[in-house]
């Protein structure tokens, strides 16, 4: 057989590349090509079905404003993320390939427009009540406002004369099993005071100039926890020198022959009067001699695997007019704030070189990267781009939570007053009557009072407040003014930036 293979290879060596390809094709290569073609056609068909399925759903963008005196910690946001996992659906293989059903995604975003910072949530309309209920349960005094998408007026063709763009997807530096630094490690051991990790991020985002924008996007997809937990524990067992249950399983033939394999160990056990086998001694020796860093990694991985997780994809975008464009000044400060979520012994976040729009060589590649990044950001896509990864609810709450009273940035949008609740003993007839009046008012009016807010003047639709004291006056109608974010006069820019509005961007 071997001489035949050698003769075949010698024959191929004397042929041209086209002849070699044809010989391999007729000798069985066509089978591989056919399998690859069928697989590609099935994937294309699956993507078409999934696109058709996703187009059935409407999405809304919600702006979240929290009172200045909020004392909630990131633990509250962890409960919000845990509640939203209720949107997870069990999708069978038949449903996936038959109708294209796919898990719907959420997008939690922090944006800075001309230095005014706003927290946003992009959610399927069918899950709006789930999201609002989860947030109100932990932040009862917050305000949630539906707004228009701030990305819709940004060009999709790049490069262009109106804006310059820098962007990238944010990925993990190590395997997803290793966790990020989470909020418990930001607490002072003596005073038990939380040093809010988002304070520096918000401060840096609020320092951008007029005609500059910074977008930070975190796509979340509820997922089946069993699969990623197994992967994480496998990594922990690998560090500890231990096999998982799947690796310990043996086949039918191995079980039959196991007495022969283990006979020397049994004989040694009987001859010495019992005791541990050499294999067990080696395992215990490995576990007991783990370095402090390895032991900490195992504990961190197991802790991460003990909480609910999401499929995650993160993106960052910096936009500016050509005159103001300074990515080094803006991006370095923002990524400096993001670096604090990293741990050298565990995991950290970094920009993905493959999706980063700045290109050192082959400048023509920058155009395609900019177009793809902006398209994926606008679509809130978790299919396209770099590979997604898993973060648990504690990590997500560290990366995205509403600022507490310790964050004092003047350009962060807050609610100004605390909402009043309706009396408990209010007669049901009055409640129904007032609710009907408010409902009819909401449908008849183009928009409620937007409080002359910076962001809402541009994007606001209407506010959906929590139930208030029904004796209060109904909201008055105001016409929604239109604002141009770009000012033609430097004096107007300086004046608008020097003094923060009483109510900052959204909600």
UniProtKB/TrEMBL annotation:
The keyword Transmembrane helix applies. Residues 497-507 have a biased composition (Polar residues). Residues 481-496 have a biased composition (Basic and acidic residues). Residues 67-409 form the DUF8128 domain. Keywords: Membrane, Transmembrane, Transmembrane helix. The keyword Transmembrane helix applies. Residues 465-507 are annotated as: Disordered. The chain crosses the membrane at residues 20-47. Pfam families: DUF8128 (PF26449). InterPro entries: DUF8128. Signal peptide: none annotated. This is DUF8128 domain-containing protein. It comes from Candidatus Komeilibacteria bacterium RIFCSPHIGHO2_01_FULL_52_14.
